[in-house]
Amino acid sequence: MADSANQGNRKQRGAVTAILVVGGLVIVALVGVIVALVMNLKRGETETYSDIPQQRAVVINEENVEEVLEEIASEPAVTPGYYEVSMNTTWNFPDGVSPARDAYVENVPGNTNDVYFDITLRGTDTVIYESPVIPRGGYLDDVTLTENLSAGEYDCVMTYHLVDEQQRTLSTLNMAMTIVIEN
Fold first, then answer.
1. I need a surface site. Which of 3, 16, 77, 80 has the fewest CB within 10 A?
2. CATH of the domain at 161
3. SS3 label, residue 68
4. In angstroms, how far is CA 28 from the centroid of its own chain?
5. Domains of the chain: total
6. What global pTM score does this model have?
């Protein structure tokens, strides 16, 4: 009988040891996951738009034009390969063959590359506009579609091509936009 009692105690101790080992492994795994998450969050911390103080426009006149130009020249440029978009995303056309009343795309001076863009009807390969190259600091506001669209609202995709000096595409950026043909 003593042997069966000892055997029962050994089984009980083995079960307790197994539970402690498994529990220890679970705790180590949880600590590892928590450390990894904290490290990942710290790596991903960035400034949000609301954290950046907003600046007001500066009136430029003969007295301060040199100072403003120096300030613009000293501002950091956009990181190469990145593109700051300045455009409106809904363009209204009186009909399918006339220029838009409100189309506007600017390649802001802080960008690092010239750009051109193509507009396609969303979900198709139908190109309805191909822009000329817009140099840094330039803008385009006189847009007439190359396809005569009938009256309606069209979901489109504008694909920007950031280009080098030889107009080779370095990268692209897709933006959703809407074309409205009134008549």
1. 3
2. 2.60.40.2550
3. helix
4. 38
5. 1
6. 0.57
